[in-house]
């Protein structure tokens, strides 16, 4: 009984913190593989959470706007949940375009900002409402629809565009936080989340985007928030079981969508396999020179603080590893720029099939 209680507490803590740790993202990297796919995508539209947000979350709330976030790129905090670039930046670079600007920027009166698409993602958000102050995925897509109705993007623009959609688990964290960590309704919730996610993908397609790519869930049990309980030595199997259920349901939903549209419009990026291939490597090869792959680079000095925390006197209440490039995880739930680069490299062949 005590063991079960501890497992529930662990899940609750994990998801609660996952939802609380807000976005941070970035742009390009010396590892970036610039390829110009003229026949693919001149624009990228991004929807989701902190794994893809590049600066929509507010300065007053998001840790991504506070040091030491952004220390690797652009050299200062920029609203990305990392020391540097995030997944969006690598995907944009791979199709030969600049990372699309955050939606919050488009009111700056500079029409050239929308040239490469727009990033509508907000850290901490989910498919459903997870953060009262931020738009869920349905609302993010409505922002996109409004811009199309206003003539910001033409049919031709949309024909040569790609959508990147990320749902990294905030719906589950919100549920567990609301229900004192009970796991009872999670299978039903997974079904609801995946069904709504499928509707969102279909809606993006109906707006004219011809390539719609959705991230599968990464191994939530391997994030440092969970691996800390084993001194960063092993992943949590309960969390990863939940993830595999979500990913199987998503695979079935996407296959159904492709059958309905008689196309291969909808694709899944297998983040679970990409993360696991890196985290389970027994030897350091190529660019994967991560020391302890389950340990974060930036952590709070105690359990009451997190990466980016300061006290009332403005003193830093966190510590940062000597070499972020040797760490896969940046903070308790987000990869480093180097981590995202490794994930991107693992997924490169899948991405090129989409292009």
UniProtKB/TrEMBL annotation:
Keywords: Hydrolase, Lipid metabolism, Signal. It comes from the Eukaryota. InterPro entries: GDSL (IPR001087), SGNH_hydro_sf (IPR036514), SGNH_plant_lipase-like (IPR035669). Residues 1-26 form the signal peptide. GO terms for biological process: lipid metabolic process. CDD domains: SGNH_plant_lipase_like (cd01837). Transmembrane segments: none annotated. One of its GO terms (molecular function) is hydrolase activity, acting on ester bonds. Pfam families: Lipase_GDSL. PANTHER family: GDSL ESTERASE_LIPASE, OSJNBB0059K02.9 PROTEIN. Belongs to the 'GDSL' lipolytic enzyme family. This is GDSL esterase/lipase At5g03610-like. It comes from Nelumbo nucifera (Sacred lotus). The lineage of its organism: Eukaryota, Viridiplantae, Streptophyta, Embryophyta, Tracheophyta. The gene is LOC104607718.
């Amino acid at each position: 009984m005590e063991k079960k209680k501890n497992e529930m507490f662990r899940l609750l803590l994990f998801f609660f913190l996952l939802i609380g740790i807000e976005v941070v993202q970035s742009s390009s990297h010396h590892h970036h593989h610039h390829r110009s796919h003229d026949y693919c995508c001149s624009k990228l539209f991004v929807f989701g959470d902190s794994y893809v947000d590049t600066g929509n979350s507010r300065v007053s709330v998001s840790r991504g706007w506070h040091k030491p976030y952004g220390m690797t790129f652009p050299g200062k905090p920029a609203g990305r949940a990392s020391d540097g670039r995030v997944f969006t930046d690598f995907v944009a670079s791979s199709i030969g375009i600049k990372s699309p600007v955050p939606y919050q920027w488009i009111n700056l009166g500079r029409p050239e900002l929308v040239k490469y698409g727009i990033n509508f993602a907000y850290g901490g958000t989910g498919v459903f409402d997870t953060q009262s102050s931020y738009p869920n995925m349905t609302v993010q897509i409505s922002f996109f629809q409004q811009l199309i109705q206003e003539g910001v993007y033409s049919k031709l623009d949309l024909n040569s565009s790609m959508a990147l959609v990320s749902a990294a688990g905030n719906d589950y964290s919100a549920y567990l936080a609301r229900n004192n960590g009970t796991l009872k309704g999670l299978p039903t919730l997974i079904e609801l989340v995946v069904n709504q996610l499928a509707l969102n993908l279909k809606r993006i397609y109906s707006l004219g985007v011809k390539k719609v790519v959705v991230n599968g869930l990464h191994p939530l049990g391997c994030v440092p928030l969970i691996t800390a309980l084993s001194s960063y030595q092993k992943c949590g199997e309960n969390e990863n079981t939940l993830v595999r259920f979500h990913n199987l349901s998503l695979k079935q939903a996407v296959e159904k969508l492709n059958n309905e549209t008689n196309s291969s419009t909808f694709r899944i990026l297998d983040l679970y396999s990409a993360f696991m291939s890196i985290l389970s490597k027994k030897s350091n090869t190529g660019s994967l020179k991560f020391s302890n792959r389950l340990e974060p680079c930036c952590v709070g000095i105690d359990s009451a603080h997190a990466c980016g925390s300061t006290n009332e006197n403005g003193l830093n209440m966190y510590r940062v590893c000597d070499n972020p490039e040797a760490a896969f995880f940046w903070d308790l739930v987000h990869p480093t720029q180097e981590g995202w680069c490794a994930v991107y490299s693992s997924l490169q062949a899948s991405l090129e099939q989409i292009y």
